Amino acid sequence: MFKKITLKNGLRIIIVPQKSTLAVTVLALVGTGSKYEKKEVNGISHFLEHMFFKGTKKRKDKLEIAETLDRVGGMYNAFTGQEYTGYFAKVDASHFDLALDWVSDIFLNSFIPEKEVKREKGVIIEEINMHYDNPMSHVQLLWSRLLYGDQPAGWDIAGTKESVSKISRQNLLEYMKSQYVSSNTIVCVAGKVKEDKAISQVKKYFSKIKETKAKEKIKVIERQTQPECILHNRKTDQTHLCLGVRAYNIFHPNRYVQDILAVILGGMMSSRLFMKVREELGLAYYVKTEVSSDLDSGYLVTQAGVRNENAEKAVSVILKEYKKAYQRRIPSKELKKAKDYLKGKMILELESSDARAGFFAGQELLEKRILTPEEISIKINKVSADDILKVAKDIFQPKKLNLALIGPFEDKNKFQKILKI
Fold it and tell me: Among 17, 170, 336, 369, which residue is least crowded by beta carbons within 10 Å?
């Protein structure tokens, strides 16, 4: 299903052939993100991602960068997370060489022009403003701040207006030199492609990548002994909240158990919280439960937007469903539905070449191993009702509860008082 090789310089190449598509995706994924930053340059990973679209020796400016793939109807973009940054191009398979040339060019040869650095600060600050003005997005930032505080895991990936304003071209160049190196990079080609040709071409285009060792990130510190609440007082028509618990990292043996638990609680339209909070009580338009599993931290969180007067009720209802999860064994039909949902969703998502590239490269980058969809399905199938009960009892404890809210409230004590389970 896939082929992986590691070159002498440490660059990893993954080829994922796909017969059922006429497209191909080239993804360069580097193991660095906001968790690798210092506070004074918070946001530098994201800033650098933006700067890779401003010009290279071959493509002199941002117009040429964009037009290269626009001319063939290609899709291209980049993304920054806490532990990774990626650049990809997806094209008609006949334009594979062009896509690989483009990705390698911006990855290895970007100029980072001084005038563009100054201009892009304004763009990123507006991006920060956009997230701040959207309470549905802003509450997620509050959630991270509540869990992790003043450490990289608790900072905004985009940085702050103050930190972004102070980042210099020299900062960007030094960060790129430190982190964008062969041993810290994966190039994945997925779609309609021949393995041997793809490997040969990747070697050719990425031959000039630096070979130094990247700096490692500081380990996340978890500190919590009682329920915690953070409130942002803001005049809104709707209260947006994130309510959840600290949970497991990506290497924990119960990782797939907590994934299934999240689906049961609020991962689909027939989930417990969707049916209770929205369909039965009419408290919210959106309510969802998700899991985040990183290298050394993890959490399960339910997010919802409710009428301001119903905020306390919504919190209580969610907590009751958490409590039920560790008081009563999940019925076999409900467990099977959640398993089938997870497996089916994974298969549907992997229909596209760009999703496949992210799926395989992401596992290799974070876990240093790759499981196929079939192997993951086996792990999902092994989860029992007793496993769900055990995990629910472990994570749904008062000392692990956290609540972040945005709404027209001045006193968080009334919410703090109901954080009981």
Answer: 369
